[in-house]
Each structure stands twice: as structure tokens, then as C-alpha cells.
Amino acid sequence: MERFSIYLQVSNESLRSLSTLEKLEEIAMVGCLFIDDDGLQMLRAGNSLQSIDVLRCHHVTSQGLALLVDSQRFIRKINARHNLHVFGDSCKNLVEIGLSRCNGVTDDGIASLVVNCSYLRTIDVTCCHLLTNDALAAIAENCRMVECLQLESCPFINEKGLERIGTLCSYLKEIDLTDCRINDEDLVYIGSNCGKLVELDLYRCSAITDEGRAALAHGCKRIRMLNLRYCTQITDAGLKHLSTLEELTNLELRCLVRITGIRITSIAVGCPSLIELDLKCCYSVDDAGLWALSRYSQNLRQLTISYCQVTGLGLGHLLGILRCLQDVKMVHLSWVSIEGFEMAL
């Protein structure tokens, strides 16, 4: 057995049994409240562990985890809430660290981690509200091969920190900036330096405008997944730049109230690989957008058009043409009559 997941109220004795699995590589013990340091030490008998998840194991301490980590030569992934210097000293081959919603994580903690972990490829600090640009600077200086950064709801990071990331982390492929206080200038740094970017999440980044979108589309041609939900300042002019992203497969535009069906036509024409599109609450999107999707987006599988100004005619045409379409969400289409729905379906 290579992988074992525990999400039950198991005890230390349960780990005693697992300790006999010599080839165990991955173990997840999320929320196991009856496991403590003594139980963790029973896993030291094996030496094949590569990944360990002790998130919400409240009786496991940093010292106990450090002892286990010291006995394992191949540890590459840790998901925990413990003193970060432990991992920096003991896990120099670490490639992934998950610290999501660890409220006590500070800039100093991140710095002590990354100074010895230059091989890190994935860093998740989602909702680590104390982090500032100093943490991003430490990551940029020490982890230049990082490919995935999860920075959701880190309110104190801004263009200064992202400038360092954009300048030094040229291998970056994924970055989540959900609910961060970023602006167009930040996107300029990312667009100018992160040409390998394939996934970008800007959910609720309300300061982003068309200018930022232009800079991003100009420099990041490989983007496949883009989330712009609630970036309410973006208009049709901003969407025009998106039409140059030929590899785009997933696009979320929910609540972009300033875009119209005409510009959806540009997206449909310029992004032939589109698989999933969210247009919920894009109140000015009409049949023109649906007709364009029908003609040019033959790979489309999921579509959300709730609260759009589409009619039964446009809906029927769309559903009749797109053979790959698997899931359509169409709540509160006030311009579509009961008869229109019946004809479309």
C-alpha cells in the first residue's frame, strides 16, 4: 500500500498497525483528534513516507512532527499548522507546503521555511492574514523555481511583493490572488515576467481594470484558466484583449455588468479551446453572444447564463448546435417564456 487516508476518530493504536506498511508513501490524517505525538512516532518504523497531512490534528505538536520528519529521507509534501522552522531545518527536499488558514503564520516563519527549501514548487498560504510583502520577497529570493502560489485573502500584499515574484519567479504557472488588494500595476509585473502562467484567479479583485487585463493578455499567452468574477470595472474593451488567448479553456466572468454580447463574440472567435464559461449576472449579454458561441465554441461543455438578457430563440439555437454541451445553468432568464424553454429543451 502506497497511500492511506484517515478522516475518522482513530487513535494511536491504529497507527501502530499502519507502521507495519513498509512501502507507505502518503498518509492523510485530517482532523484526527485522538492522535498525538506518541502515535506519530510509530510511523518512524518505515522510511518511505513522501507526503504527510496532519491538518487539524490538534494534539500533534511541531516537535512530534519534526521527529517523524527527521526519520524520513523522502518527505516532499507537508500539510500542517506548526512552526515553520522545523520544516526548513529538516525537509530541505520539500516541494509542496500547505498552510491554508493557518492564522499564526508570519513573515518570519515563511522566511525561516524557504531559506532552506529552495526546491519548493507549490506554496499555499491561503487566508494567512498576517503575511506581507516581506513574505513574498523571501519566497522570490529563495524559491525561484516555484510554480504554484496560493495567496487568497492575504490582504497586506501589494504591487511591491508581486513585483519581486514577477521578476524572480519566471517558472510560475499558477497564482491565486482571490480577494487580494491588487491593481493594474500588479498585473503589469506578472504579465511582463510570467510567460509560463496557465492559471490565474483574480476573484473579487475589484481594482482591476481594462488596462491591467491588456498587460496580462499581452505577456501571458498560455493562460488556460482565468477567473475574473466580480472584477466589476472590466468592460468590453478589456474582454477584447482576452480574445488573443488561444489556449483559454476556462473563463469566469460572473457579475461583469459592463460587458455585452458583442464582446462575447470576440471571445468565442479568438478562444476556440473554450470548455467552460460563466456569464451569470452579466446583465447585458444577449442573443448575440449565444449565436457566436453556437458558431465558434464547438468544444464548450459547461455554460452559465443565469440572469442574462437572452431569449428563447437564442437559447434554442445554442442548445441545438453545441453537441458537446453537458451542463447549462439558466436561472431567472426573464426574457425566455415557458414555451421558449420547452422549445429549447
Main attributes?
single chain; 345 residues; alpha/beta; Leucine-rich repeat, LRR (right-handed beta-alpha superhelix); 3 domains; 14 strands; globular; F-box/LRR-repeat protein 3-like; Leu-rich_rpt_Cys-con_subtyp; FBXL15_LRR
Task: Provide an overview of this structure.
There is one protein chain. With 345 residues, the protein is of the alpha/beta class. The protein folds into three domains: 68 residues, no CATH class; 152 residues, Alpha-Beta Horseshoe (Leucine-rich repeat, LRR (right-handed beta-alpha superhelix)), CATH 3.80.10; 88 residues, Leucine-rich repeat, LRR (right-handed beta-alpha superhelix), CATH 3.80.10. The protein is built from 14 helices and 14 strands. The protein has a 14-stranded parallel beta sheet, with no helix packed on it. α8 runs parallel beside α9, α11 runs parallel beside α12 and α13 packs parallel to α14. The longest helix is centred in the middle third of the chain and has 10 residues. It is globular, with a radius of gyration of 24 Å. The model has no long low-confidence stretch (mean pLDDT 89).
